[in-house]
Amino acid sequence: MVYKKPQRSKTMKKKTVLCVMIAVAILAGCARKQAEPKTAEGFLERGKTYYNNGEYDLAIADYTAALKIQPDYADALFSRGQTYKNKGDYDRAIADYDAVLNIQPDYIAGLANRGIAYFQKGDLDQAITDITAVLKIKPDFIEALSARGEAYYHKGEYDLAIADFEAALKIQPDDVITLIWRGYMYGSKYDYDRAIADFEATLRIEPDDAQAKQYLEQARKARGR
Fold first, then answer.
1. Of 2, 34, 123, 206, which has the fewest beta carbons less than 10 angstroms from its beta carbon?
2. Within 10 Å of residue 111's Cβ, how many Cβ atoms?
3. Are 204 and 174 in contact (CB under 8 A)?
4. Contact of 72 with 103, CB cutoff 8 Å
5. pLDDT one-digit tens code per residue, 20-42
6. How many Å is the maximal CA-CA distance in the chain?
7. How far is residue 220's CA from residue 126's CA, in Å, rounded to a whole number?
8. Are the C-beta atoms of 76 and 40 separated by less than 8 Å?
9. Percent of the chain's residues with pLDDT above 70
10. Backbone region of residue 10 per phi and psi (left: phi > 0; alpha: psi in -120 to 50; beta: other values)
11. Which residues contact 46 (CB under 8 A, 6 or more apart)?
């Protein structure tokens, strides 16, 4: 015997739809009744959730609310600065990082990200100053070394850039992005043998890296074989 799939009657369908509508209404009511944060910490945590969801304006509103309750809240200032930086509003980001560092001068993340904001704004000298200050506190901060190397590259100071990339690679030899950067620097100095060596090293780690393949081919052509 072949069994037919049970079919809902029209009455059952109407009851099901009604139950779903009631459930949605209850959930919506609960959401509306959810209390607003009452503490600076509460606003900060909700702001972080908004930030992680890409809702930057809502995140900024919550960080600002936290700061109205606690104006010297360094974590809220830093988080708002990060959000402004991600929105491309570098001046406001820098202002928040400044405020963080006035409250807590050893807030290394504030110093590092202010350097990045200056870099993204195009103020390379100030970016290098901030990142150098970070490296005095934390000499093995590989991201800071790489960031300063990029800043030196944009200033045309290739030897200083290479020195930073080499320092970063001593800490993490298999960092493919830094290997590519150093190879690119060598190529910019017409040192094609070293450039090729770095691109080949990259491809031993990441055989499918398209950028390394492209640069390797260009360096080989420039070298003449």
1. 2
2. 20
3. no
4. yes
5. 343 433 334 443 334 699 999 99
6. 84
7. 37
8. yes
9. 84
10. alpha
11. 37, 62
